[in-house]
Amino acid sequence: MAGSSKVAKGELGAKGKTLMFELNQKTALVTGAGQNVGAGIARTLASQGAHVLVNDIVADRAGEVADQIAASGCSAEALPFDVTEGNDVRGAIADRPIDILVNNAGNGGAEMMQVKPFAETEPADWAGPLAVNLDGVMNCTHAVLPGMIERGWGRVIGVVSGAGTVGVNIGVAAYSAGKGGAAGLLRSVALEVAKTGVTVNSIALGLMSNTGDTGVTDQLARAIPTRRLGTPEDVAALCAYLASEEASWMTAQTIPLAGGSITS
User: Fold this and answer.
1) Given the residues 39, 54, 104, 175, the one annotated as active site
2) What global pTM score does this model have?
């Protein structure tokens, strides 16, 4: 079981300090965790003691990340399914008590997101981004929430985007709508369940360093006050806090994580 080598909650570490943000005996589901930010979140939550269910629409990607986590001495297993299919979500997590849900799956869904001015799009172009970025969050949150409420403890985290909170003019309006809708949905859910011991928050990301092109990365970074793009580790650290007992008074928030490029 996850966390057998971790310090139990409330015990003191080697320097006499209580270990913070530990997730021993918790089961975390991270969607879209077969690569990039999701994989970083999965690795970090596992390192904090959680048993991590690594979800991805591509089974091989989920399996590879789960194997890497297990090889590091932490606890994980692959759980591939499509977050946009409600029946698949419910079937995959049936009889699994999920303590922590990180709604990370996003972008354009099963296919790459198409960049195009909204005026030039057709309704069919909106389907993929809205399905994964909004419907996927609804499906997964709806599936895990009753169990969290019944047990009196839970953490739901949404990985959204500055595109959904302040807007962007780069031809991804449907993506912005999906991310903004997810942030609004989770804030309302947070208030509905605030008395139950379940917290719900979102992280609004800025530009992330997953282009693979150093020249492009350097160019993008110049527009960010910290002069660098975000990394999976940046996001994972905030997720570890939001998933922890220490974050029990943090709920209904959409937290910018963007190197200073999102200030409202």
Assistant:
1) 175
2) 0.90
> Is 22:9 a contact under the CB 8 Å cutoff?
yes
Q: Which two structure tokens, joined as six digits, stand for 66?
A: 């789960």
Instruction: Quick: pLDDT tens for 75-100.
Output: 999 999 999 999 999 999 999 999 99
75: β partners: 51
What H or E segment, with its residue span, contains residue 63? helix 59-71
Cα dist from 2 to 10, 23, 68, 100, 219, whole Å: 17, 9, 15, 14, 41
Looking at 3.40.50.720, 3.40.50.2300, 3.40.50.300, 3.40.50.1980, the CATH number of the domain 27-257 comes to: 3.40.50.720
Q: Where are the domains of the chain?
A: 27-257
Cβ contact 175:113 at 8 Å: yes
Residues 6 or more apart in contact with residue 154 via CB below 8 angstroms: 98, 99, 100, 101, 144, 145, 147, 148, 193, 196, 197, 198, 199
Q: How far, in Å, CA of 139 to CA of 190, rounded?
A: 16
pLDDT band at 17; cut points 50, 70, 90? low
Residue 80 pLDDT: 98
175 is catalytic: yes
Q: In which element (H, E) is residue 237 found?
A: helix 232-242
Q: 3-class SS at 54?
A: strand
Angle between helices 59-71 and 36-47 (to 10 degrees): 30
